[in-house]
Amino acid sequence: MSGPRLRSMNVGDSEAARPVFGPAGNKTGPLSSRKPASKPLRKAEKLYNEAKEKKSYEVSTVVASPQSYSASVLRRHEQLLHCNLSLNASCSSDASTDSFHSRASTGRLTRSNSLGCTRKRSVSKPRSVASDGVLESPPHGSQSKKRCAWITPNTEPCYATFHDKEWGVPVHDDKKLFELLVLSSALSELTWPAILSKRHILGEVFADFDPVAISKFNEKKIMAPGSTASSLLSDLKLRAIIENARQISKVIEEFGSFDKYIWSFVNHKPIISRFRYPRQVPVKTPKADVISKDLVRRGFRGVGPTVIYSFMQVVGLTNDHLISCFRFQDCMAVAEGKEENAVKDDAQQKEGDHVESDLSIAIDNLSLSSE
């Protein structure tokens, strides 16, 4: 009697009964013939997969290598850039504007605003430009004219002008000489800039420095409380100005002019100092001491050696401009010109005297012959 057939649970048997699809057709081979083939097949698939993974890894490495190379080049260029920017102080402000951009696909580097430093270097020096595009000279003419070391860009304009136009120029006018003597005597209380700022007021108070007019002033009026003069100088200086005006009037009567008297101490020729450095310029000299003593003997006040040497510098009795100052040669030229004029005047005067003497002799001879 035949019952239902039971399915075998043996996997090996079922595997043996299954047909295998192969290139020669559907065959059912023995298990012994198929088992050895399974291991080589798995090894081949494993080798194929490993080769495929290795190939994909190499491809990915090749693709990624330009990116890593470009990134390393980028980092190297950025490091060089930062080094250059840190060493160059003038272009440090441009470090934020200079940008570097990289493209991973090409590995190229581009830089924007690469001429920023060069342009800023070319315009870093301040230079004044006129409206028509012509370069103007720096203030105070520092490039074309060199002054004495005590005249700086911070010097007050009135004092710089005084240095450029008056200080050291030979003076031969009596009123001008007295004015500069008054200003020099005020140096014991004020500085040159302060004195020069009050110069016009002093001129109004003291009758334009006319010694004859000042000698007639009333001291009490000049030194009265609330007067203009009392606000400018001390009472001692005001008295000295009035007294010196009186003594100058006496000198004029004796020598014919204060100019002849004061210039006689230097033989009517300026003393040329030829100083190179400010430290060489003295405060007083033996010549100033001689002049001071003679003035004091004549009744002048406030005329010590220091004041007199300042007076000598101002009126050109001595040329104390530094030899590097442009005014040194100017003052020498003025002195030489005046000396030549004085020689010509003396020659003309001598010639006139000679002609007059000849005429007088001729007249005397005619008178004798007529008798």
From TrEMBL:
GO terms for biological process: base-excision repair. GO terms for molecular function: DNA-3-methyladenine glycosylase activity; metal ion binding. Residues 92-116 have a biased composition (Polar residues). Gene3D superfamilies: Hypothetical protein, domain 2. Residues 1-45, 92-147 are annotated as: Disordered. Zn(2+) binds at C148, H163, H321, C325. Keywords: Metal-binding, Zinc. The keyword Transcription regulation does not apply. This is Putative GMP synthase. It comes from Glycine soja (Wild soybean). The lineage of its organism: Eukaryota, Viridiplantae, Streptophyta, Embryophyta, Tracheophyta.
